[in-house]
Amino acid sequence: MAIFPQTSAPLSAPGTAPLPSPDGRRPDAGTRPDGPRPAGAQPRLPALRHIGPNWYASVMGTAIVAAAGAALPVGVPGLRTACTVVWALSALLLAAVLAARAGHWIHHRDQACTHLLDPAVAPFYGCLSMALLAVGGATLTVGADVIGARAALAVDVVLFVAGTAIGLGAAVVVPYLMVVRQHRPAPGTASPVWLLPLVAPMVSATQGAPLVAHVPEGQGREALLLACYAMFGLSLLATLVMLPLVFARLVHHGPLPLALTPTLFLVLGPLGQSTTAVNQLADAAPGAVASPYASAFGAFAVLYGVPVMGFAVLWLALAGAMVIRAARDGMGFAMTWWAFTFPVGTCVTGAAGLARHTGLSALTWLAVALYVSLVVAWAVAGVRTVRGVVSGALTAAPGRPAPATARTR
């Protein structure tokens, strides 16, 4: 069975040996762009060598817990305070991962360049954009209770601009590298991970909506709203191109390797995020465009969001069944478990937006049920990640993943 080419640190289960790169070298062979490391030389900060861009997923998964909790269309005593604490944790986590990744590029540039040119790892650079955007959005939503509305807006604007620029760049650069570089992915190796750089502009569309009201009336406000819709379309159409490849890979080549099975939840990201985006933008439209278009955007939010949320529930059931099957076959913890958080959180905010626009109680309870599952998944992934960092298992050199999949019976 074909598995992902050049599987490297972020996609490997802890404790297994990495696959060699196409030229026969191990991805962590200790070379530098300007030549091999001198004999006996030890890399500085070795614990940072295997901190890949996938670690930003922990920031995204934490920030969405705060944002989704604040978006719930029900009042729960103490929930706002808890969301504020989680937001503060996400901000600290963002700073820590940014510092670790900076150290990775400074002291382990050979490994960083290998990651950037690896089709199994490069898509995770979209997580940097989404981490910035998620923390920025949560800052404006719940962080304002702590730092004040003006400071929260300033932080959100900075993170929105940086995250959007990085996300648009990743949406172009990552597919470009996968197309033109010498060692391209083999047929049948499409992965849900490939969606990550394509979803980032959709997150920008969602997080840009609350900023529309802060732009002075006129051309600027309308331009921001329509730019968000343009990013919505960019991400949606790119996702529609990619999803058939992912499903065809599953049908023709069987389930993913056990450690990668949680990445099936990544498909929920563009579904839930696009539903959230159209509802957020519909709320922002009345003050930015003329009434006929504002009303049309409100209708579009429901006409688009309900069918897409229906498909999201279908995919959630399919992905959940695959994860249960993989767990029965021995799936252990890996950083891919963070795929259980952010994508589900986008479905929470999407369902909450639809509940707000339709007044349907069923959508409210769907949002609540999804949020409960999100919190449980976040707690499990967080505890296991902390345990792995403390023990050194998650920062150690990854090993070769077992070629087992869930198709064993």
Report on this structure.
With 409 residues, the protein is mainly alpha-helical. It is 64% helix and 1% strand. It is built from eleven helices and two strands. The protein has a two-stranded antiparallel ribbon. β1 and β2 form a beta hairpin. α8 (268-284) packs antiparallel against α9. The longest helix is centred in the C-terminal third of the chain and has 38 residues, at 291-328. Residues 1-40 and 401-409 have low confidence and may be disordered.
Chain-wise SSE layout:
Elements: E1 31-32, E2 35-36, H1 56-71, H2 79-107, H3 109-116, H4 125-147, H5 149-180, H6 196-212, H7 219-253, H8 268-284, H9 291-328, H10 342-358, H11 361-391
Antiparallel strand pairs: 1-2
Helix pairs in contact: 1-2, 1-4, 1-10, 1-11, 2-3, 2-4, 4-5, 4-6, 5-6, 6-7, 6-8, 7-8, 8-9, 8-10, 9-10, 10-11
Count of extended strands: 2
Q: What is the chain-wise order of helices and strands?
A: EEHHHHHHHHHHH
- Rg measurement, Å: 21 Å
Give the low-confidence spans. Answer: 1-40, 401-409
Mean pLDDT level: 85
**Which class best fits the helix and strand makeup?**
mainly alpha
> What about the largest sheet?
2 strands, antiparallel
In percent, how helical is the residue content?
Answer: 55-70%
Distance between the ends = 15 Å
Strand order of the largest sheet: 1-2
What percentage of the residues does DSSP assign to strands (E)? under 5%
Helical stretch tally:
11
Dominant shape? globular
